[in-house]
Amino acid sequence: MSTKSLRPDKSQNVGLPSVSWCADELHLSTSYFGDLIRKETGCNFKFSRNFFLPLLKVCTLLCTA
Q: Quick one: which of 29, 31, 41, 57 has the fewest CB in 10 Å?
């Protein structure tokens, strides 16, 4: 997955990444990726995305400042 794909300003223009988009970026099937996220985090993809994406944005902003 390229870091350009998760630019902080991109979610305003394109929207939040979906399960299918993330799975495609990682060359995994959608169902496998969803099951993997649920197994590793204990939560579904939507919850994990909404929890981790803001953290990624903060880290990106801190690293580029």
A: 31
